[in-house]
Amino acid sequence: MKSGCIEVGLDEAGRGCLAGPVVAAAVILPSDYWHSSLNDSKKLTSKQREEIRIEIEREAIEYKVSFVCNNEIDNINILNASFLAMNQAIRDLTIIPEHSIIDGNQFRPQSFNKIPYTCVIKGDGKYFSIAAASVLAKTYRDQYMRELHDTFPQYNWLENKGYATESHRENIKKHGISPYHRKSFTLFETQIDLFEGGIETDSDRAVIPHIK
Predict the structure, then answer these.
(1) Are strands 99-103 and 22-28 parallel, antiparallel or unpaired?
(2) How many CB atoms neighbour CB 127 within 10 A?
(3) Which of 81, 77, 80, 78 is nearest to 67 (CA)?
(4) Alpha helices for the chain (secondary structure H)
(5) pLDDT one-digit tens code per residue, 94-128
(6) Which CATH superfamily is domain 7-147 in?
(7) What is the C-alpha separation between 6 and 99, in angstroms, rounded?
(8) Model pTM?
């Protein structure tokens, strides 16, 4: 978007889920980077995303991925958690960008983040660096939910990745919630008491390591 400067693209994944973290990625690509298939991660197949992820990680000047867990989402709300994840990803870059481009129509930088930014609606379909961030955020989050599936197979996170599918909602009704469900979200048409029937209450189980 701004020629002749170090620009970072940012996007997140998992805002609309009932379970799991929200994940953001920050990606700095070479100024001449081009890819014939790179696009909004939602428009790519799972196989395409995984293949492109490998190339992004190889070709990017730098990238960082940041997780904000479900407990923090409940504490500060999902919008602020998305901003937090993006700020954390920017913070962890060793190269300081001169400009940020962010998918969506709003962003709230933290006090340490003085980098000028531009929000771009549907930016993941317009700029390679945002699309790359979209792919990394999506694939890292999907990988994490697949790993959680081994411990909580009753929710079928292997397939739904924590999104609000009909079967996911039905399994919550049947089994109660896990430590990874977002208690601030309305899980059904009528809000249920999320503190009844929970599998565990140990919030330590929901702490997610920060990916460097």
Answers:
(1) unpaired
(2) 20
(3) 81
(4) 46-59, 70-76, 78-91, 128-149, 157-160, 166-175
(5) 999 999 999 999 999 999 999 999 999 999 999 99
(6) Ribonuclease H-like superfamily/Ribonuclease H (3.30.420.10)
(7) 7
(8) 0.87
